[in-house]
Amino acid sequence: MTGTTIDGFEYRQLPGTGGIRLNVAVGGQGHPVVLLHGFPQTHLMWRHVARALAERYLVVVPDLRGYGDSDKPEETSADTYSKRTMAHDIVAVVREIGYERLSLVGHDRGALVGVRAALDHPGTITHLGILDVLPTMDTWDVLHGVDAAVAWHLYLMAQPKGLPERMIDAVAEDFFSSFLDAWDPSGTTFPPHVRRHYIDSSARAVPSIVADYRATAGIDLEMDRADRASGARLAMPVGVLSQDWGSRLGFDASALWRRWAPAARYRPIDAGHFMAEEKPADVTAFIEELIQRT
């Protein structure tokens, strides 16, 4: 594959929340499995995993609002890019396709959308898979000292509207390239055309990407705190696949996740952040095992 679409998948523009439309790739048939991408990527990060899963499931792979070829509404309120709004988008898309229940797997930013979808729509999300991220509330709690410099971009994009967008836009290619380089230990995960696609897509979406991150330092954090105070839990089967960030930053990722999902299964992986592209067979097996749980 040399293009920027997933071979064998049909592409649709489907309605999300508030009139926006999402770019969605759909393939296969059976129980719906939704795959949500992370930063600084698009739905294309799932190309290998999606094709494998489509042999047994209906696989739905959207660009999140604000990313890729999905709409990028202006950030007019804190809720424009809240994970609650983004989760509503995904539920609306799957209902438009004709389904009320779905398994959801997210990487990085997509996993945060997935967690919010599972908390807000527990009767809709049958299984939740999480790749290489912590819940919003816990992310901020574990970042401290010089080791937290790995997450410097979170603090930049948490700043009020205006300055972060201008700073990033001025060096957009260098900014987004730096994450593709730093988080890819082998340096061989991305074919040149895929790397170019991620950089160009992100450079065209600076305001919406910053708004997504800004929400994580504001409204998303407030929602997590409210859920923690109310005792909200993820009761569906939950699986977490992650690098061992805890050994560097001093936390137990499995314990943090089990505060939200007592029965969560945590599995470390010997891969970089972009594991769905670096080790797609391992990620596919993780998802299939998760979906088979009851």
General description of the model:
- There is one protein chain.
- The protein is an alpha/beta fold and 294 residues long.
- The protein contains 14 helices and eight strands.
- The chain has an eight-stranded mixed sheet with strand order 1-2-4-3-5-6-7-8, with helices on both faces.
- The longest helix has 15 residues, at 83-97.
- It is globular.
- The mean pLDDT is 95.
In short:
The chain is α/β, with parallel strands linked by helices and 294 residues long. It is 44% helix and 16% strand.
Poorly predicted spans: none
Share in β-strands: 15-25%
Structural class: alpha/beta
Percentage of residues assigned to helices: 40-55%
Number of β-strand runs: 8
Overall mean pLDDT stands at 95
Q: Which word captures the global form?
A: globular
Number of helices, where a helix is a run of at least 4 consecutive DSSP H or I residues: 14
Radius of gyration: 17 Å
**What strand order characterises the main sheet?**
1-2-4-3-5-6-7-8
Largest sheet at a glance? 8 strands, mixed
End-to-end span in angstroms? 35 Å
Spell the H/E element sequence: EEEHEHEHEHHHHHHHEHHEHH
